[in-house]
Amino acid sequence: MNNTMHKYTMITGASSGLGKAFAIECAAMGRHIILMALPGGNTASLARGIALQYGVDVQVFEFDLTDSQALHHHLQHISEHYEVDFLINNAGVGGTSPLMETAVESIDRIIQVNVRSTALITRLMLPLLLRNEKSYIMNISSMAAFTPIAYKTVYPASKAFISSFSLGLKEEFAGTGLSVSVVYPGPMMTNSQTSRRIIGQGIKGKMGLLTATAIAQLAVRKTLAGSPIIIPGFMNRVNHLLMSLLPAEWKLRIVSREVKKEIRYA
């Protein structure tokens, strides 16, 4: 196969959860896929299954996004061998714990993955994306981006960065063929730890709860339609509207009080 003749969607954090759902959704649309994920996440098996089921080409790159040398090496290879017209910056890490009990390494990793890799991958992929008449970037933020949150502190700040970065990027490239969208997912059962936390919160935790598949389907469709801001789920949009009416201090206190309850499930 001459890969330069085919358009690819590149997805980071693609081995499971929302990243996996994005891969399946794009493949179902007939799009070829480049999956980026940490080693040991069964990504190669996922790629084989997707390729077999949907008849698309699926390429896998397993490495740590915080490894600057590996990141530059793989992105250069991709730029030289594949035509990418859709970038999904999905990789992200978080956690809930008092800041004084959070390891310095954990704080650094949130910043490295959520902030640094999103900005660097976008910058390094821009020349390749702009070679297309139409191209798309989807950056995954979070409902947590809309307010500071105690006991998470660094995570919502990193997601606020992604929000600001994406909207600024969209304005900078207005009038070109590049469309930029930012997605703000709410609660989502992606793994056993997240499921325990959501179940532990009772009905409050389940409000706005969506599956990764539902979020991926909506986000991909709206991104390809050029929507700049995507908040999946009616209840999440209502919650965002109601919370935006509150003074910042009230919002911070209300959300932080609920998040504090998560610590026993973290």
What report would you give on this structure?
The chain has 266 residues and is of the alpha/beta class. It has ten helices and seven strands. Strands 3-2-1-4-5-6-7 form a seven-stranded parallel sheet, sandwiched between helices. α4 (104-129) packs parallel to α5 (154-172). The chain is globular and about 50 Å long. The N and C termini lie far apart (46 Å).
Can you give keywords for this protein?
alpha/beta; 266 residues; 10 helices
Residue share in β-strands? 5-15%
Structural class estimated from helices and strands: alpha/beta
With strands numbered from the N-terminus, the spatial order across the biggest sheet is 3-2-1-4-5-6-7
Distance between the termini: 46 Å
Tally the helices. Answer: 10
Approximately how much helix is present in the residues? 40-55%
- What average pLDDT do the residues reach? 91
Secondary structure tally: strands? 7
Helix-strand topology string: EHEHEHEHEHEHHHEHH
Summarize the structure.
Helices cover 50% and strands 14% of the residues. The mean pLDDT is 91. It is of the alpha/beta class.
Topology:
Elements lengths: L6 E6 L4 H12 L3 E6 L5 H12 L3 E5 L5 H14 L1 E7 L14 H26 L5 E6 L13 H19 L5 E6 L8 H9 L2 H4 L5 H13 L4 E2 L3 H11 L3 H13 L6
Parallel strand pairs: 1-2, 1-4, 2-3, 4-5, 5-6, 6-7
Helix pairs in contact: 1-2, 1-8, 3-4, 4-5
